[in-house]
Amino acid sequence: MAALPVAAQSMALPAADPVGISRSGAQVAYGYSLEAAATNPALLASLKEKGGFYLAMGLEMSSTQQSLESEQTAVRTTYFSYDRNRTLGAFGLAARLSPTLTLGLKLDEPYLRHSRLLDNAPSRYLGDGIDLSARRLEGQSAWTLSPNLSVGLGLGVARLSYDSSSVMRLNVPNDPTQPVSGSNAVNGLVEHRIGQGGDKVVPSYSLGVRWAINPRWTLGFAHQSGLKGDLGLKAEFRDAPLGFYANDGLSTAPLGASARASVLLAGSTPKAGSSTLELPSQTTFGLRHRLTPMMTWEADLRWTSASLRVPTFATVETPSGTVSAPTDLPRGRGHLGLNLSAEVELGKFWTLRGGLALDQRSVEEGSTEPLLGGSRTAAFSFGAGYKVWGGELNLGYQYRQSEDQDTSRLNGVWSWSGFRSVGTRVRMEGMGHLLALGFKKTF
User: Fold this and answer.
1) Cβ pair 123, 116 in contact under 8 A
2) What pTM, to 2 d.p., does this model score?
3) Contact call for residues 194 and 168 (beta carbons, < 8 A)
4) Tens of pLDDT along 130-165?
5) What is the DSSP string of 190-259?
6) Of 370, 383, 172, whose CA–CA distance to 261 is shortest?
7) 124 phi and psi, to 5 degrees?
8) pLDDT tens for residues 52-99?
């Protein structure tokens, strides 16, 4: 029996505000839009008004589904993840100081990832939980070099938070205070969750260019820096022991295993893994076209660097030596993404938006695992804006879907000799949702 989830979406969010979400992030060349300036600071110079702000709150939801197929019976057993929801927040502000200089401020969440497995999922040995987030605050400035050309710069900080957990089995000898030896044989196993967590504030920057070729066509370029920091992780045993087993890892634990395991755990120390968290940079080129006075569309091509790296799992120091997870989470690979959006103005009050996003695989195919996922993803979005209360009320929604995959690499059993794969095939599926509501006012 096995349960192997793959997260439902890319770790990178298209945006944290409703306008950016409904455009699926395709807005690097979208002038006259304060929300788009969160992606490309050069767009601040294109704003028609002297100033403005927006405030948004939302929810990110993701769930995973994994189906175990018995090769003998072709009957599938399906499992689901939990810990599915996270709140989102976004803020933007702009003020024109002169005809050539506009200042801004943005708060967003460029990366978010979370997943938890059930306590009895066999794939828990390869990691059973992750909670990763990045919240970014940048001051921005945009300079108008000519009526059609502007450049922008953003400088600020990002708060990186990371938490992970894995489940390990520790050998319990007859004398748990002494190392395993010929005279102190293993007589059972104890299963326990070991977690680690930490956070760090790191520098962040962004660059942007906007070139309006003519009133209908605009080119945009934006670069968002990668985020890297040493989080100073702290490790700990979490919750109570998950179970006690015989040496084969399957049978009922021998008599007295629980008492001996308590002594062993008291004499063991969790140790944090490597503390470096590195999130990739993103470079985007965009083309915007005003097809009619009512309709505008944009296409963005985005490159995400290969610098994704997360900390290794915690280990446990026991009297018999160090116990570690069978594997660590993989490193990322550089990949392309395509984003498309369209916006239609209906009269004086309503604006309708829609978008599409496609992303290549973000990890090597042979490295796909439960927590970071990394399969190809697709997303579809829509939203609307309504002018009211002297501003605009916006709603944005995005549905995110990962490519289904089959694997027989990761599910396994942990006995006294360690973890071993059993080769059962698992179908991995997932989906996610982004939803946000916000209000914008210009002056």
Assistant:
1) no
2) 0.91
3) yes
4) 999 999 999 999 999 999 999 999 999 999 999 999
5) EEEEEEEEEEEEEEEEEEEEEEE-SSSEEEEEEEE--EEEE---EEEEEEEEEEEE-TTSSSBPPTTHHH
6) 172
7) -60, -25
8) 999 999 999 887 666 666 544 444 555 566 667 899 999 999 999 999
